[in-house]
Amino acid sequence: MSAPRTLRALAATTAVAALAAGCSSANSDANRSAGASGVLTIGMPNGPQTNNSNPFLSTSAGASLGYRYMIYEPLVMTNLVRPDEKGQPWLAGAWKWEANFTKVTFTMNPKAKWSDGKPLTAEDAAFTFGLIKKYPALNGFGIPYDGIATEGDKVVLTFKESQFVNQNKIGTTYVVPKHIWQGVKDPATWPNRTPVGSGPYRLKTFTPQTTTLTATPSYWKGTTRVKELRYTSYNDNSAQTTALGSGKSEWSFVFMPNYKQLYVARDPKNNKLWFPSGLGIHGLWFNTEKGALSNASLRKAMAMVVDRRAIHVQAQATLYPEITNPTGVPLPAGESFLAPAYKNATTKPDVAGAKKVLSDAGFTLSGGQLKDPSGKPVSLTFTDPAGWNDYITGLSIIKDNIKQLGIEAKVKTQTVEAWTSDVANGNFDATLHWTNNGPTPYDMYQNIMDGSLLQPIGKSAPLGNFGRFDSPEATKALREYANAEEDSARTAAMNTLQKIMVEEVPMIPTAAAPLGAEYSTKNWVGWPSEADPYGPPQPTQPNALDIVLRLKPAK
Length: 555
Prior knowledge:
Elements: H1 28-36, E1 39-44, H2 61-65, H3 68-71, E2 76-77, E3 88-89, E4 92-97, E5 103-108, H4 122-134, E6 147-151, E7 154-158, H5 167-171, H6 178-181, E8 201-206, E9 210-215, E10 228-233, H7 237-246, E11 251-252, H8 259-262, E12 271-274, E13 277-286, H9 296-305, H10 308-315, H11 351-360, E14 364-366, E15 369-371, E16 379-385, H12 389-403, E17 408-414, H13 416-425, E18 430-434, H14 442-449, H15 472-483, H16 487-504, E19 507-514, E20 517-520, E21 524-525, H17 544-550, E22 552-553
Parallel strand pairs: 1-10, 16-17, 16-18
Antiparallel strand pairs: 2-3, 4-5, 5-7, 6-7, 8-9, 9-10, 11-20, 12-20, 13-18, 13-19, 14-15, 21-22
């Protein structure tokens, strides 16, 4: 439900880089026979996984590898690459929003059923929304659910304020079976190791390195061509890249510093990649409640010296779109949203300007070391998962950039699980991470600044406001944007959010977030592409289910 590497991205994902475990060379004949037998191999560079298939948790293996989307299904399937398109009916055959967006009615598809054969009903959908409402840890988007009711085959949701900006988030909610989950003591921590869903696949086997799903014999939407999904979690980007180049892994989202040589050239006919972008970004998130980072002037000064061009070329190999505006709004996609004050603004480094910002705020430079207004030296620790070489290179560049201001920083690497937990709990100084994306920059800013997602350090905030940014003004502007009845009111709120982003810098935007992936057409065809953009190609996005159902064996 987020963008990011998972993914979030995520995805979001939410997302960018990836992670993983062990890689061996693949035999092309074996790979051909795997495809012929209906097997699709998927990889992510996310390191050893813990057996957890809770679809609501971004920390679960199901989220990290993306297989939760094959077991659990949404009410509506939307397209992040074309967010203005009407969603596809899925578990809901139809839906209708009231004019003021305070009420929505979903009519359930009567054919839908669970993998254990029991019917999937409006009661299941209502129960799911009830769980999300009751347990904040499951409500990653902070949606203010109010009334939840059923009327025959319909589930009716009501809200006290407009949900204009949350239509897709509500519609893409995964539904879980009431007859299974009603007996769970704490759904926010339940590992769900034998998941029962409505999707076309069941969990067959799980190890820390490889998870195998097998097709459900009586999937309610019909027979699937892909009979088995094998997810391997490689230790790092290098291992995942090797697996893609050899053909051992057919589908992944991984950063490659030299993708033409390492991947495409290994099989020019079949090794493909497509990296569309949305209105989400990657950036250096600050923990705004820790030490000197609570001072907006320090954050702003750091943003003024970060060399985005160097990050674009050296860390991202020009694969991700470059950020050229300090608002973080990706261009040209978001150009129509830019506030007049920032139309001509740039991210060109300004060391002299940054030093003045610090001096005016009471920071001093002594012996080449920056000291905060209380006289304490400013030192920071940057964290990200080991093996995410795009992020690690980016952190190294930022570390060198801020040294020009007298700031000492060190880079610490972690396992993906430890890092994900630390980010959610606010146990970090600064970290490169992605944001949500959507049809407007609202989703990006809401993910970064929304006070409704604010949690104290030590309490999990798994899908938003990781930096504990406490700005009543930003929260107010977000609410005004969401509830506006006229475009002029939305424009005013968006302009306010951009000003806060530039002046208070809850995070430093470093790149536009692609929704890309690498995939092979050797055994399977039907992948999304620029010519057929029916969805983002990442295996850790909700559209991964739609992709698998569209794949056909290569002739």
